[in-house]
Amino acid sequence: MNDARILLVDDEQSILELLQTVLRKEGYLHVDSVKTGEEAIEACKAKKYDVIVLDVMLPGRSGIDVFPFIRQTTDAPVLFLTARSSDFDKLTGFAIGGDDYITKPFNPLEVVARIRAQLRRYVGSTYGKLSEATSPRSTNVFDYGRFKLDELAGELLVEGQVVSCPALVFQLLLFLCKNPNRIYTKSELYEKVWGEEAFSDDNTVMVHIHRIRERIEADPSYPKFIVNVRGLGYKIVKDELQELSAP
């Protein structure tokens, strides 16, 4: 874990120095920092990073603007860092593919905790693929008719076609598939899948649920598989016709 490479992107030198200091105290020694979006793009072209902390309010091109260009060179999780705290801003960051959203002012230890949670999901794996060395079981395929989730292959198939699935989207869907017809609150899902306390922010789970629905539902506006039980939480619906197979 401590070999992970981290890129910090922020135009405030004090924030960069604070995060670098805390990360290094926590054992993360490979921490680079840049101050502009253009520098971030070039850094991602030059090196492979395991996680990126990207400020939204950058001089010139914003973090939102440069994010698609960063995604062209790396699949590393991106944590947006910004003074904007409205739900709209958070949802914008998640909607374009961000993995987490941290608002200023922040506790640097919270940033470290969120980075650590992302690294647990990404370092040593590729988008949800679990090596057979870490799991003695045969490949499990969760068959829901319209879609199938192949755990060890790390593949989501919808109507027979492989659909791209970012790691945390895959892991959240996998967790639900392993626990069908059971209701989980947003906080419970965050703690189970992300591996950290929810920090009183459940937008992350909500947006990732939306991403899953976009992939597996015929009409995401009227979901049949992942449903919201009002006032309680989410569950994935599995009936007696849907089998768990192990080829």
Structure report:
- It is a single chain.
- This protein has helices at 13-25, 37-46, 63-71, 87-95, 108-122, 167-178, 186-194, 203-216; strands at residues 5-9, 30-34, 51-55, 78-82, 100-103, 141-143, 147-150, 155-158, 161-163, 226-229, 233-236, 244-245.
- The chain has 247 residues and is an alpha/beta fold.
- The chain folds into two domains: 5-122, Response regulator (Rossmann fold, 3-Layer(aba) Sandwich); 132-245, Winged helix-like DNA-binding domain superfamily/Winged helix DNA-binding domain (Arc Repressor Mutant, subunit A, Orthogonal Bundle).
- A hairpin with a 4-residue loop joins strand 7 and strand 8.
- Helix 4 (87-95) packs across helix 8 (203-216).
- The chain is elongated and about 55 Å long.
- The two termini are 33 Å apart.
- Mean pLDDT is 81; it is low at 124-139 and 240-247.
How many beta-strand elements?
A: 12
What is the makeup of the main sheet?
Answer: 5 strands, parallel
- Give the total of domains: 2
Radius of gyration: 18 Å
Q: What's the N-to-C terminus distance?
A: 33 Å
Level-1 CATH class name of the largest domain? Alpha Beta
Strand order of the largest sheet: 2-1-3-4-5
What's the name of the CATH homologous superfamily of the largest domain?
Answer: Response regulator
H/E element sequence: EHEHEHEHEHEEEEHHHEEE
Mean pLDDT: 81
| Structure class | alpha/beta
Indicate the low-confidence ranges by residue numbers.
124-139, 240-247
What is the CATH topology of the largest domain? Rossmann fold
The helical percent reads: 25-40%
Determine the strand fraction and express it as a percent band: 15-25%
Domain OmpR/PhoB-type: 139-238
Pfam families: Response_reg (PF00072), Trans_reg_C (PF00486)
InterPro entries: CheY-like_superfamily, OmpR/PhoB-type_DNA-bd, Sig_transdc_resp-reg_C-effctor, Sig_transdc_resp-reg_receiver, WalR-like, WH-like_DNA-bd_sf
Modified residues (4-aspartylphosphate): 55
